[in-house]
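Quarterly update from the structural biology core.
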Amino acid sequence: MNYIKPVFKYKNNATKEIFKHAKCLLTISVGQEVHEGDKFAATIELVNASFGSAILLIDDSLQRHSIALDKNQNADAFYEISITEGDLWLKRNKKYYQNLTILQDIIRWDKWLKHPQYHEQQQKIKSLMAEQPYYQASFNNTVDEFLKRYYPRLLEKRNFNMQRAKILCLDYLIEECTALCLWPELNCNFEIYPAKRNLAMEETHKRLVLPFYDLLHPIGIKFKNRKQLKPQQFQTIEEI
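Predicted structure, tokenized:
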């Protein structure tokens, strides 16, 4: 693991001294290589040494939208598979996250889907999208940017339905942004995720979180001396 060196990337005025007394939310995209093996172990080591406390959020059931992208069924048909993927992730990565001595809690995505304010918050997002063209565009642009990266990686492109994929991606983003608006109850000062926060999440945070809470400021992680990351993979799907 010596060849992997993670460093934080952030734009706000936070300092290492502030991190020591802050709580962070470490979000895990199940199926992403960056949240597996040596890279995840290095992330845990960095977070452990930097923050006062941490919550681990496992984005498992959210991934039913991603699994459905190149399939012929709707996202909800893959709900149970996405939960199984979360179970498997927790099992194989326990040897890494059990070293997170500042860990306060492990949360799974269904906490937000079953949250009493979930549907109300989602409606606020949809209404704002209808009222503000730039906010709507932030979702559309995020979807387009993702599919530009996703489509070339497909082994079988012939039967891929781009319009259907855009709908699935939009559903994913709206769900993700709805959850973001509920995260303040965790009282986390920062959210840590390897990639830069997408534009839809960024605009949602700006419009629907920051006016009320000085929380969930994004921190990225850059891995020095790493190889190109592989596409997202789901173990259960590979076994079918």
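The chain is about 50% helix and 15% strand.
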